[in-house]
Amino acid sequence: MQPFLSCFQVDGSSESVDFIGVVVKSRTRYHTQNKMRVLFMVSSMVTIATAFTNPLGWTGAAKTSTTTTLHASADSGDKKKVVVLGGDGFCGWPTSLHLSDQGHEVIIVDNLSRRNIDNELGCDSLTPIQSPEVRVQAWKEVSGKDIKFVNLDVAKDYDLLVQLLKEEKPDSVVHFAEQRAAPYSMKTSKAKRYTVDNNVGGANNLCCAVIDSELDIHIVHLGTMGVYGYGTSGGEIPEGYIDVILPGGRESTILHPAYPGSVYHATKCLDALLWQFYQKNDQLRITDLHQGIVWGTNTPQTAKDERLVNRFDYDGDYGTVLNRFLMQGAMGVPLTVYGTGGQTRAFIHITDTARCIEIAVNNPPAKGDRVEIFNQIAETRRVRDVAKMVAEMTGVEANFIPNPRQEAAENELDVSNKKFCNLGLDPISLDTGLFDEVTEVVKKYKSRCNPRKILPASFWNKKRAEECASIDPDSIKLEANDAPAPAVEVTHQ
Ligand code: NAD
Ligand code: USQ
């Protein structure tokens, strides 16, 4: 059998995928969840709450605990201790609050690199996010629940990571702590190298740390739909694995071929191989969530107090398409549709992100099971159709600008999300009613917007940069009277 990563070839610029000697036999082999696993748990916990900041740097009440967990798996209803790596970020913060709200014990780990990248880019969240210390204090006041915060670099502070796991003995580690913007990952050689070092190094460190801790910790990783790529795949994309007939008629089940569209997406493909290896070699229990584009701002928990507000990225590097369109519509700026807008992508609301993580935490694979893979999406939509929805709602025009990305101009996307639905998720769909929540947030904080940051600022290659030379960041101006800003040059591809 050929190595997994060489199971495809790229047909020049057409972005089609051609499997070499691999015939897709059936699109989905549903890996049945054993939802009724018997649970045996003997837990002894010694908790010493102290008011100091410990050597790992967390704030709030520090705890030393010893927990002996004798069960291999658990179903819903079981309260867990969860370390959330990247818990200060857009997905990590609301997920941490949701888990805490549901009665799980949460420890956030974050090195605040995302806030530092904002400084580097001269940008900021549209919403005024508070420091981690203020955030956890506000949550304590609102909910009565403690969340610890640990400032640690998952990709660099290996010994501290092992120490944290040994001391806290979590049931699960949810891993959000990666550089997640495709445009930023394509910005410069420095950004490409940082993205690979940070993301792949962090994933490898986490596996090594779980092994060194000698604890049976379930890893839940945030992957991406982009691992499958956006060449039209000719059918429904299954959840992680496909059944194939190899040359010679041999039947096999393999990881879906990887087809990344950016350095960032490539790191998620590399992560996926690491999960496969460490599961096989060390029987680590791992769930990889192939998530679509997250939209929305607040969740029921972050909406409880202004100090809990979630971050909102609107800039050309970190802002994602639907939230950008909603922000542009609310500000009267023409919507920045790249190319023809024929790109079809998967979407999920931020509230469902948090719900999915809890479902994954509550349903770990058994020891020895293959890596569990879920497609974490609600639905798929074409970018120009999303633009049309927002344009109709706001009265702002869609502006088709040259595409800064090397990607298929048009693609179909049909994705299975049966596993989460079978485990109880009733996903929120794109709904103009919910768009209001985002536009209200945008209007509230519009004075914080820097219009120079709205247009794309990272280009996939020299050709794309040349094609985008007409894009002038100064062409977007937010008038005091809210008049729509002048459109940038329109180019249809
Ligand atoms: P984010 O950048 O807002 O949050 C990531 C957090 O991780 C940040 O707070 C950052 O400071 C932290 N971090 C990064 N590297 C770290 C390191 N080495 N050590 C400690 N902390 C580190 O991103 P997000 O939108 O919340 O995404 C979270 C995860 O979900 C990412 O892995 C991303 O790939 C995945 N994801 C996001 C989306 C989306 O639309 N936002 C969609 C699919 C998947
Ligand atoms: N796009 C526009 N106009 C914009 C911004 C984007 O037309 O103003 C287009 C892009 O060209 C692309 C599509 O919209 O075709 C999606 O772009 P995006 O920035 O919303 O999403 P992407 O770069 O794929 O990355 C985001 C997250 C990433 C996550 C991924 C999930 O930043 O962390 O992994 O969504 S997925 O796309 O399903 O792989």
TrEMBL record:
Domain NAD-dependent epimerase/dehydratase spans what residues? 82-367
Membrane-spanning residues: 38-58
Q: Which keywords annotate this record?
A: Membrane, Transmembrane, Transmembrane helix
Cited SUPFAM superfamilies: NAD(P)-binding Rossmann-fold domains
- InterPro entries listed in its UniProt record: Epimerase_deHydtase, NAD(P)-bd_dom_sf
Q: Could you list the residue ranges forming a coiled coil in this record?
A: none
Family assignment? Answer: Belongs to the NAD(P)-dependent epimerase/dehydratase family.
Name used for this protein in its record = Sulfoquinovose synthase, chloroplastic
Q: Which organism is it from?
A: Seminavis robusta
